[in-house]
């Protein structure tokens, strides 16, 4: 059959991989849904394709100013940067240092030595950091609030802020997520673990023909698969660790 493109198809794909309908999979539908949610959460937290970098613009309201924070959407798992709210030393528009440099050196721009230009802007950026600085931010994904630690008088109602963040890739919007090989195998292993856990309650019980449940073996196999795949995630699919607020 074709690769899954919906949650229902994904669930059936995982169950077929475990043996359905040839083998009865002793797992409730709610348990299957829970294990898929668990797999998706792990996928979003660690897989480089599970999130995307976003730049969110928000207009400050009076409530934001009174509260000292701005609300953040549920699908954002981390905020890493806030664009400077105060003006910068290099100016803007026709008064910017870049514009003035090009204006005064356009006739020899092709042969101009850019090392001095680059070092000068590095120095300006350093002065900006020392004299103006950045607004410290605090964010926790379970609170969905971005706190900006600054004097409230420095920002007015109606002003805009822009923050850099990471947003989960929603499979209900981007159906291609359900085709991810690692996610398919990991969700299947999670469902298999649930199956084995359910069957361990019937250890020693014999079926007609002296057939016995072997839930412990299924549980052990699933646990080994999960450990192997989580190690594969860290070594092959995760981005290098960097500073992340959230």
Describe the structure.
This protein is of the alpha+beta class and 246 residues long. It has 2 domains: 7-50 and 171-237, no CATH class; 51-168, no CATH class. The chain has helices spanning 7-18, 29-46, 62-67, 97-105, 114-131, 181-199, 215-237; strands at residues 51-59, 69-71, 76-82, 137-140, 145-148, 160-168, 206-207, 211-212. The strands form 3 sheets. The chain has a 3-stranded antiparallel sheet with strand order 1-6-3, with no helix packed on it. It has a 3-stranded antiparallel sheet with strand order 2-5-4. It has a two-stranded antiparallel sheet with strand order 7-8. A hairpin with a 3-residue loop joins strand 7 and strand 8. Helix 1 crosses helix 6 and helix 6 packs antiparallel against helix 7. The longest helix is centred in the last third of the chain and has 23 residues, at 215-237. The protein is elongated, with a radius of gyration of 27 Å.
- Secondary structural class: alpha+beta
Strand content: 15-25%
Structural Rg: 27 Å
- The neighbouring-strand order within the major sheet is 1-6-3
Q: Runs with pLDDT <50, length 5+? A: none
Count all strands and give the number.
Answer: 8
Helix percent band: 40-55%
Count the domains: 2
Figure out the total of helices: 7
Query: What are the secondary-structure elements, in order, as H or E?
Result: HHEHEEHHEEEHEEH
Shape: elongated
C-alpha termini separation: 40 Å
Largest sheet: 3 strands, antiparallel
Mean of all residue-level pLDDT scores: 85
